[in-house]
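Input chain follows. Return structure tokens only.
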Amino acid sequence: MEVLHKIALGGGCHWCTEAVFQSLKGVRKVEQGFVAANRPNDTFSEAVIVHFDENHISSKDLIAIHLHTHESTSNHSMRAKYRSAVYVFQEREIEEIAQILVELQDEFDKKLLTDVFLFSAFKASDKMFQSYYYSNKEKPFCKRYIAPKLQLILEKFSEHVSEKVQI
């Protein structure tokens, strides 16, 4: 029996983030758009909402993949637009996700700058940008930015990658 959960993930470009999570086993749906938390983090930033079957992939695995596929340790100038964050839908999940981030810190040389927020709002991207990679694989942006992320998950997280992944 499927046990569906959802988590929102923000990092780099949501076209990239969407493609990564669309490529995983156990992920049933990825909504691409803009997510906000409560004040003071209530400005919208690029993110995805991932609907997943916890019998096939855990939230910890999703977060690990997320951290490795965007600049989760870089304090770059675009942090407002590309906030490195995990958005949860229930307050009780904040502590659990914060603990997962502590556990995953050992996989990185630099300090993770990823925050955990309670989800507040979502605005979907325009339909023409949804499923961007799988509709536009040959475009230069996809080849330059998204394909390397998919190659990384094939190499580092192969047990979670769907057979439908095409680079």
